[in-house]
Amino acid sequence: MLAVHEDREFLLSPGEEKGTDLGVLEVPADAEPGDVVETHLGEPFTLRALRGPDLFDHMDRTGAPMMPRDIGLVMGHTGVSRDDRVLDAGTGTGVLSVYMGRAGASVTTYETDPEFAEVARENVSMAGVADRVAVRTGDLTEHLDELAAGEGFDVLTLDTRDAPEVVARARDLLVPGGYVAVYTPFVEGTREAALAAHEAGLREVETLETIQRRMDFDDRGSRPSTAGVGHTGYLTFARRGPHA
C-alpha cells in the first residue's frame, strides 16, 4: 500500500519500516487502507490501497512499459473482464497483465527474457494478482500447438516482433467471438499484423494510432501542450467470427 504525506508517498508493505526525511515510518502488520500512521517525529502518513496508476508509477521497470492510454484502448476494445481467459506475449514489466488481472481475467503471459520475467512476477505479486496472472518464461510461438489444443482464449494480446506469426494462428487460439490486440511501436509491424489478421479470416480488423496531448491553461489562453511526445504506438484489433 501507499503511505501518503502531502506531496510525497512511499510504497510499503504491512510490517515494513522506512527511514524518511520526516522521520522513521513503520507500517503495522495489521494496517488497513485509510489508517493514519505517524513517524517517530509525529508526521502523519495516510495509508492508501494501490490503484492502477499507483502500480504503473511504482512497478519495477525492465524497459518502456505499455502506457495507460494504450492499456485503456486494449481494455475498452476487447472488453476484458471477469472470468475471461487471456493469452499474452511480450510481458515486459507486466503492466498490461496486471491491469487485466485486476479486472478479474485469468492471464497467461509469455516473456522470453528470464530477468524480465522475474521482475514481472514480482510486480504481479505486488499488485495482488499472482493468483490470476501466470508469467511463463519462454517464446509463445514455440507453444502454439499445445495452446491451440486447449479450450481456447477469450482475448489474445501481443507486444512482440513476431506478433504476425501468432495472429496467423488466432482462429486456433481464440474462442468464437474472441479478440486479438497487437501493440507495435512502428507502422511496418502494424501493417504485417493487420495483413495477417485478414489472411487468417478474422473480422473487424482495425488499426489505431495512439496519440494523446495534454492541455495547458494559463492567463494567455488554453491550448494543447507543446511539450512531450503524443505518439506511443499503434494498436491493431481483430475478432474471430461467431462460428467454428
UniProtKB/TrEMBL annotation:
GO terms for biological process: tRNA methylation. GO terms for cellular component: tRNA (m1A) methyltransferase complex. Residues 69-216 form the tRNA (adenine(58)-N(1))-methyltransferase catalytic subunit TRM61 C-terminal domain. Keywords: Methyltransferase, S-adenosyl-L-methionine, Transferase, tRNA processing. Residues 218-244 are annotated as: Disordered. The keyword Ion transport does not apply. The keyword Methyltransferase applies. GO terms for molecular function: rRNA (adenine-N6,N6-)-dimethyltransferase activity; tRNA (adenine(58)-N1)-methyltransferase activity. SUPFAM superfamilies: S-adenosyl-L-methionine-dependent methyltransferases (SSF53335). This is Methyltransferase domain-containing protein. It comes from Salinirubellus salinus.
